[in-house]
Amino acid sequence: MRNNGAVTGARLWRSLGLLLWTIPYVDGALNQLRKPTPRAARGQAIGLPATDQHVQLSGAIMLAATAALLIPRLRQPAAAWLALQTAGLTFIGHRFWEQTEEGPRDQQWLQFTKNLALIGTALYLAAGERPRGISLAAPRARRSGSKTR
Q1: Read out DSSP for the chain?
Q2: CA distances (Å), 29 to each of 59, 88, 99, 120, in order?
């Protein structure tokens, strides 16, 4: 009974963690859909042929990929897509190295590093790895002379 409770608890924490991790993606996607013009202007400023429709399409794809994270079979490809999309959007939208004033540069740096953390987590999920806890069963078994798997 206790083991089932631990499994259920771990599943709950993983689900909650995944839900919380998706919040910036949902927020970013909705902003792209609702307010595309400033984002398209950022792309145009660095020479990309970005239009409002491109930005809205990006937002729709981000929203779909975020929803796909909730489907276990689609989680890895969705996470890989979000890592790639976030990398591109981070380069376009958070160019801290171009800021000359400290305040705006610090704000862009903060957003840049936050996005790096999102990308890192997306890559972790895309690899299909699940965190594993440290097992104390094997050391105890060795001391007692029994074998465990």
Answers
A1: -HHHHHHHHHHHHHHHHHHHHHHHHHHHHHHHHH-HHHHHHHHHHTT----HHHHHHHHHHHHHHHHHTTSGGGHHHHHHHHHHHHHHHHHHH--GGG--SHHHHHHHHHHHHHHHHHHHHHHHHHTT----PPPSHHHHHHHHT----
A2: 4, 14, 25, 19
**Among 52, 35, 33, 34, CA closest to 43:** 52
pTM of the model: 0.80
For the record, the structure tokens of 108 come out as 């862009």
Task: Note down the domain range covering 112.
Answer: 2-144
Q: How many domains does the chain have?
A: 1
Domain contains 68: yes
pLDDT for residue 147 is more than 80: no
Query: Looking up tokens 């409770």, which residue turns up?
Result: 5
For CA atoms 91, 94, 99, 105, the dihedral sign is negative
Domain contains 102: yes
Say if 81 falls within a structural domain.
yes
pLDDT one-digit tens code per residue, 7-37: 678 889 988 999 999 999 999 999 999 999 9
Instruction: Give domain status of residue 149, yes or no.
Output: no
